[in-house]
Amino acid sequence: RRELGSMAAAAGAIAPMTTTMTARPMKRWATLASRLQPKTLALFATSASVLLAAVRRFGPVLLRRLLASVFGFAQPLPGGIQRLGGLRVPLPGGEHLATFAYVRPEGGPAPTFLVRTPYNKHVAEILAYAVATQGFNVVVQDCRGRYASTGQFTFGAFEDEDGVATMDWLSAQQFPWYDPDRVVMFGISYLGIVQWALVA
């Protein structure tokens, strides 16, 4: 109310002839705002609490169904999904490949969906989560020298070595969700090149 009063006073100083016309509406507005503020804050807090509880309870289910619809997938499978961030696949020479994964920690080993990309792995975050709802573990990785991965990017030069290093690293970690005999890859353009390099 003090701030509103100062604003009214300033308006009066600038235009003395309209002081009365300006001050009265400002005073009424300040009085109304002071009366409504506690109720508004209480309503906001209650609404936020209810919304947060609803998101915690129903949000993941609704999000999975929405993504399945957007991508044309089947209805999502039940079970938890965990995000593993900050993974690093080591390379000879001290370089590393920045990696994240959406995994299904329950129910034992499942097929793994591997994406290696030069286009920034985080672009695939939503797709990775959506695929994980279909029963896959999803591993997404920046190619050598791209974004968070270190080293120098040379078109197609190291994709065979880096693909093998990634597969070996996944096996060596003994992740309970990983099955080395069930790995699939996805993508066109350079994402297709890395697939051919790995299987060649």
Give a description of the structure.
The protein is of the alpha/beta class. The protein is 49% helix and 20% strand. It contains five helices and five strands, in the order H-H-E-E-E-H-E-H-E-H. Helix 1 (2-14) packs across helix 2 (19-71), helix 2 crosses helix 3 (125-132) and helix 4 packs across helix 5 (190-199). It is globular. 22% of the residues are buried.
Write the layout of secondary structure elements.
Layout: H1 2-14, H2 19-71, E1 82-90, E2 96-103, E3 110-117, H3 125-132, E4 137-142, H4 159-172, E5 178-185, H5 190-199
Parallel strand pairs: 3-4, 3-5
Antiparallel strand pairs: 1-2, 2-4
Helix pairs in contact: 1-2, 2-3, 4-5
Q: What would you call the structural class?
A: alpha/beta
Strand content range: 15-25%
The main pleated sheet reads as: 5 strands, mixed
Overall mean confidence score, pLDDT = 78
Number of strands: 5
Task: Give the distance, in angstroms, between the N- and C-terminal Cα atoms.
Answer: 74 Å
Q: What count of helical segments does DSSP give?
A: 5
Which oligomeric form is depicted? single chain
Radius of gyration, Cα only, in angstroms?
28 Å
Helical fraction equals 40-55%
Low-confidence stretches: 1-23, 25-34
Q: Encode the helix/strand succession as letters.
A: HHEEEHEHEH
Read across the widest sheet, the strand sequence of neighbours is 1-2-4-3-5
Shape: globular
Briefly say what this structure is.
The chain is an alpha/beta fold and 200 residues long.
Properties at a glance:
200 residues, 49% helix, alpha/beta, five-stranded mixed sheet, disordered N terminus
